[in-house]
Structure formats: C-alpha cells, structure tokens
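3.2 Worked example (two chains)
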Amino acid sequence: MTLLLEMKNVHKRYPGVHALKGISFSLRAGELHALVGENGAGKSTLVKVLGGVVAPDEGKILIRGESARWSGPGDAIRAGVGIIHQELSLASHLTVAENIYLGREPKRGPFIDGRKLADDAARLVEGFGVDIDVKRRAGTLSPGEQQLVEIAKAISQNVSILAMDEPTSSLSARETEQLFRVIAGLRASGTGIIYISHHLEEVFLLADRISVLRDGEMAGSADAKELTPERVVSLMVGRQIEALYPRTFRDPGAVLLDVRGLSRRGVLEDVSFTLRSGEILGVAGLVGSGRTELARCLVGLDPFDAGEIAVEGTPFTPRSPGDALDRGIVLVPEDRKRQGLFLNRTIRDNTISMRLLQGLRKGPFVDRPASESLAGSFVQRLGVRCRSVFDAVFSLSGGNQQKVAIAKGLAVSPKILILDEPTRGVDVGAKAEIHQIMNDLAAQGMGILMISSDLPEVLGMSDAVLVFRDGRCVARFPRGEGAQGTLGERVMTAATGGIANA
C-alpha cells in the first residue's frame, strides 16, 4: 500500500510539559491505524501537530514522501489532511450544504449559486449511502448525522488522510453502524484513517494497526492481529492490570435506602429495592429502560405518582435536589459537561458548589482558606491530575473532569451516592481509578447506586444487580449467582425481555 503519511521524531513542548517525546507514526492508503492511550498521553497533541493547529518543536512530517510544514490548518487541508475533532464544530444556524462548503461556496458572478451548492452537497452525502436533507439546519441534526456532515466536509476538500477523534462517543448503536459503513467506503477509496478511541472493542473491530501512546512516548505499535486487548491495556497504563475491577466484597450493613412501589406515569412502574451501607448496587438495562429516570425521582428532579421512599427508616418525599441533599443523597449525573460541572469555573469552585448550601461561608463571602483546603483534599484523595485547584475544569481530561464531578458530590458527605454512567468517556486508567474510589467509599460504609451500560463494570463492581426493562425492575441478581459469563447472559436476557420477573 502507498505510504501516505510519515511523522518522524516529533517533539512538542509546552511550559512545564513535554507533550510529545520523539513520536514516529505512519499511515498507508486505505488503512485504519488506531491511536490509543490514556487521557493526557499525547494523542490530541499529535493530531493537532498533524492538522497544523500547533507546530512541532522538532521532527518531520512527510506527505507521500515529500516534506511538509504548514503555518495553520488551511495548509494541512490543502496537503490532504482532514481532522474531525471530538467536539464537532458545525455552525448550527447554517444548512448542511452551507456547512460543507463554508468559505468555498460555488458562485454565479458575485453571488452564491444556491442550487449548485445544494446539488453538490446532496451528491456528496448520497455517496455515503445516507439520507440527510442538505437544506436542513445543522443544529437540527442528531449527533450521528452531524458526524457524517463533518466527514462530508472533509472529503469535499479532497483529503486523503482523515483523523477521527472519539467519533462514536455520542452516537447510538444504529448511528455507529452507519458510521462504520462510511468508514469502510472511505478505506475502499484509498483514504487513510487515523482512529482515536477509548473503546477497544471498536479498535479491534476496525483497525489494521494499533499504536499506543503513554506519557508522550510511543509505548508500542503493531498489526492489530498481533495484539490482544489485555496487551494494549498494559501498554497504555505501563503495568499489568490483574483485575480491572478492584472490588473488595464485604457483608453489607444496615438498610440506608428503602424504595417501595415507586411509579411515575409512563416512565416507572412499581419499582422496589433496598440499598445497604457498604453496598454497591448495580443498575443495568437498555437505554430508555428507566434507570436514569429512577435516579431523577430519588433526588427530587422529577416527581413520582405513587410509592414510598425511606432513608434509614424515615419516610422521605424529595421535592428538590436540596431535599435529597439534606437527607444525604447525591446524584453524579451521566452528562457531566452539561449537568454535573461548571466547565468554565475552577476545580475549587466546582468542588465547593454544593457545600455552599451547607454554610462554607464567612458572612456573605466564601471562606477562601477553607474552600481551598477542601478542594485540595479531594484533588489528592481522588487523584485529580492538575496544576492547582484553580485550574478551569474545561482544561482537564474527561477522566479528571469525572473525578471533580464525584468530588463535588462527596464534598457534602453523603450517605447515598448515585452514579449515573460513572466511567463513560474516560480512558482505561481513569476508569480503574474511579472503580478504586467507589471501592474505598463502599468500604467506608457509603451506599452506592451505580447505573451503567458497561456490563463488565456492573458485574465486576456490584454486590447485586438490578435489571430494568420498560420502566420496571424485572430482576435482581445477587453476586455469585453462577460464573460471571453466565450471570452476564442472565442480565442481558432480563434486560432484553427474556424473563418477565425475578
């Protein structure tokens, strides 16, 4: 295969950080070369260098054997390099066609030729085998459709090298399948693809080669068929992970949370369970099965129509998250960026945000020394990687953002912690750290309700598993009911309708 790209001995330094340490990387025509590593390993920096966003301090970039150096992303695009970032950059108020050809619109005299613009865009999109109205505004599209428009925009610029950063992070299963079909078509046409993902199952499904970055260095690179997921994980974290789920199981204590017959019309029906001190109770089920809706009712975000909740034996009807907080119940929501964190605020501000309701003040002012000490203690306790508690949260990796979201909840010393998809979108190293945090909290007597779509996580971390389907809790499986593989099959059977009740 034709060698499209070579990056040789690339270095990139920032103040106090050597982000890339002599990285060499290559890509062939029609190849999918996966780039994996923990958050902060250097993947994004390498792609920024390739895309002309930042300039390397040392090293060479060769495109089809010719030395290349560019002053900005435009030069990289003209050289045939397209980058699709995890955070999509479409102009929501413009149409699909306008986004694809933004700044390159066909003209008729001094005016944009609207008909040709739409026709060219439609022809391009149809070539992917997808049905998107190019006259729709981009802001009305689903995440999967927006991803395809970004690809169409890149291909319209005749790129032969396409880097994709976590392309499936916000896609449904159907949208992911569609994306994979488009990727297959691009490869067949000779486009080389750099595929960055935390999802190793995707990597091994798609990749011809896999390269692993660790701490700014190339930890290993080989044909995918020569590697195993376990070997890749070991290369990523620099150690063998003997157990991905560090759960230490103990006999649970007294009942903290007792839910009886909880119902919300059209959402939940007759849900009953108990959560004990020191217990991690996993909640499994398909998307839309009622898991998140349960959490929202428990913390007063949504009302319920029938049923009873008791905390440590005392009846409780939450009217707001503040009511739940007063009873020692905290929710760390699934969408940390929009619901769990103030991204433009500091680690300190996020950590203390709920504590302010409990009086972390001196008169009308925040007690600055106390707030810094509190935030610092959680940074150390949870292993948040940052320069100081005054770092803006948006500057942190996904895994460290999630730790801050957890710290925000723990700062109010809850008895019951509800974690909705606690490790979604974080790398394998951060995932292991979050699992250890959960294990430590349970050992201290906290009750944890863990909602997760990651079945191995549910099986590995839970004392017992509740299975939801169509708003009902259809099964409860204690830990130890058969081998993990068998238990996983039983959980999935219940979630998909194989059994009616527990």
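3.2.1 Second chain
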Amino acid sequence: MYDFSRWISIISSDICSISLKSCYNYGMDLFDHAMQDDLQHTAPLAARLRPRTLDEFVGQEHIIGEGRLLRRAIIADRLFSSIIFTGRPGTGKTTLARLIAQHTQAHFESISAVLAGVADLRRVIAEATDRRRLYRRRTILFIDEVHRWNRAQQDALLPHVENGMIMLIGATTENPYFDVIPALVSRSRIFQLEPLKIEQLGIIFTRALEDKEFGYGNRQIEFAGDARDHLLHQAGGDARNLLNAIELAVETTPVDSDGIIRITLDVAQESIQKRALLYDRMGDEHYDTISAFIKSVRGSDPDAALYWLAKMILAGEDPRFILRRLIVLSGEDIGLADPQGIQVAALAEVFEKFPQMRYAIEIKKSEIPVEQPLCDLIRQYKMEEKVLVASFHDEVMQNFRATCPEVATSASRGEVTRFVILGKIFLSRLVAPGYESIQPPFDPEESYNIPIMTRRFIRESHRKNIKVEPWTVDDPELMEQYIEWGVDGIITDRPDLIVEILGK
C-alpha cells in the first residue's frame, strides 16, 4: 500500500520551499506559517535581526567577503562539497547556513544534534531519496551542534554524504578534527569563524537601534557613550550576547519625561552577563592556555603568567596538571641554567629506593639499543619478578625476550593485531603467546576503527592466561565498565579516579 501521508508531506514541503524561503519543516500548513510570521516579530532581538541577505552579514570577510570562494559558491548555488562551520557561539554559523538555504534551489532540512537521533536521520534520508528519484532535486542537511552526535550516529550519515544523496552543512563550537569522525571531516571543507571585532559589533549595535521593522528604530533610545563601549567590549566578539544585552537594557528601562529611553553605564553593566571563560578540559583552549602560561614563564612575563594561571584556576583546571607542566618546564628550561635545579631519577635509583614496588617499563625505539643494559639492571637489583617490559615495536620486543627471557613482557603492536584478528574469526586458540600481558588501546581510532575492548576479548585473553591492561583510559565510566568486565589493570593518566572507584 502507498503511504499517501508521506507523499503529501513531500509535496507540501516542495511547495513550501518554493513559495516561502523561511519554511524548512515538512508539512508546514497555514497555521504554522502564521506562527512563524508572528515569531519573526515577537522573537528575541537576536533572532529578529538575523541577516536575511549576504550583504547584511557582518564579519567573517575571510570566508564570505566579496570574491571569496564560499560567497561565490553560495550565490551560484554550487556548493562544492559538504561544509563544517566551526567557531565560538555568536559568530554566525547558523546564520550562514540559513543564508545558504535562501540561495539554493535544493531542499533545505535543518535538525539539531541535541534533539535528533538516528530515527530522524533515517526519515531525512528516505525523503531525500524520494525527492532525488522523483524530482532530481538535491537535499542539503544542516546539523547544528554536530559534535553532539556520537560516532555511531555520524557513521550512519557517512554513506549518504559519500554518494551525494545528502549535502552536509555542520555547525560546531568544538574542534571538528577532535569531535567529528575523520571520514566526515575528510569529505568536508572546514571554515573557521572568528569572534567579531569591536567595529563589526558596532555595526550590529547601530542596526539594532535603527532597524524599524525588526529592531528599535521606532523608539527613541539613547545610549551613553561609556554604556555603548562597555557592551561592545564585554560582548566578547559574540553578536548574540551583545543583542541580548541591548534588548534587556531597552526593555527594562522606563521612558523618561521626554519620551526617551536613556541607557546609562550602570544599566549596561547590569544588562550584559559576565563573559564566561572559554575553556575546555581536553580541547584546543585547554592546550592553548597551558601553552600560553608556559611561554609567559619562559619569557619572564609575570603579569601574563598570572593571567593565564588565573584563567585555568577559575575554569576549574586540575592543579596537578598545572604542577606537572611546571615540572616539565623546570626540566626543559630552568635545568639548562642550573642542572641541579631539578633532577630526573635514574631507573637504578628508583629500584634502590622502592625495591618492593612493581614496575611497567616501556622501551622506546632508539638508535642505541637499550635491551641489554635494561636486562642487566633488572638482574642487578633482582627485579625479575617485579617488572613487566612493554614496547610497541615487534623487533624491540623480540630482542628483549631473547636477552632477558626470565622477565615478563607485554604484546607488541603486531602481536596485539594478530591476536585480535584471530579472535574475530574464532581462531584465538591458535595463538601461542610469548608474552604475559596484552595492552590494547580502548579507542578504535588507535586500532584502525576496530573495537578491541569487549567482554569476549577479555575472556579469550584469560583463557590463554594473558592479562588485559587497556590504555589510556581516563573516563571514569569506562574504568568502571572495564573493571566490571574483569580487566587485570588499567593504564591511565588519572590514577586518582581509579583510587576513587576502587574505594566505593
């Protein structure tokens, strides 16, 4: 039987997209249109003042200025590939996507990764397929906050981007190289949107006060010079933040006896929220800030060093991370002037100081072989039963085992690969390991997108009397899961989390 409701939805969508450029949803009726028209005049100021043409768009001249590639592609309706917009909030990512929708003859579909899931994607794909088959019409899919989709959801989108059924426009406040799967990134053009400059915010400020249809052009409003400057500087390059502050100041200030709304500095200060610190725990801002801190110390600039240190502390950075980086700094820089300023303990000193400890020692590949000296040191301090030696490199591991057969070793990268492949085809019984431990990566990106850490993998390893110690696991939920599955150890940069979990 035919699904007539689906065909009606597609037809109504096509009519909508032809007659009403602002209509993006399927099946929009006259009541929906009336609601959308009402929202255009009652929505917050930031929504009402969204640019309606490319000429009204302020900022981002490096990607959308006259003669730029993206501008030419939008005007000509010839988007060359999928696009990902990345940048801070309020820089115009969603607005650019809407402007593309107004200039294209393709059907434009908009969803939010926060609210939508795979079911919504399947609907979009099915309707896009029908639209392409029946009308030869392309579909552009805009996904706001695309980084909020997990790997499985992004993987579900990939084949349809590859075959051209969907032209993707993604928007994210995160680094797409970290939070979007590499396959999507490789098939997309990345455009970095920069925070707006003071003069660009000034243009938006003036437009808000002079626009008679969507702004405050029909009211008499006066901003004191210092009030205007305060809002422009405190907006932090965020147009939305600026417009929200203007709206709050205007709407909460009564008209004086002259019929004028006068905005003073005090009102402006109350109207704009304190700029939030732009910081993340594992992304660009995290590493950029600690780098700026280290460079400030290295350059003997105490004011700058205190600024970056204060930013990290206020943002909630782990003090131990800061201290570790200071120790590294001491070893790299201060140690050059005073070799005794900070010393790195030699392995012999560690063995002598802590003879009862157990050690996992990784051998890096180097021009000077270290297998024999390491073996001699282990034998000298009688640590044969307390040391596990590991290396990614097959050759290094073979050499060490031949040199020091009495010391336990971990599987090399090649040995891990063979064990995993044989396990996938139910032939792990054929493995005759010459190692006591296997240290697989938990991240599929480290293993050619092949998930290794499963219950079955752990069971197969234990049948071979092989201990499983995944790396590098810093997520407490993953830690708890692996402990429940029966791993023998966890390699982590956050031992404090392990201690907390085990103490529950």
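3.3 Remarks
The chain is about 50% helix and 10% strand.
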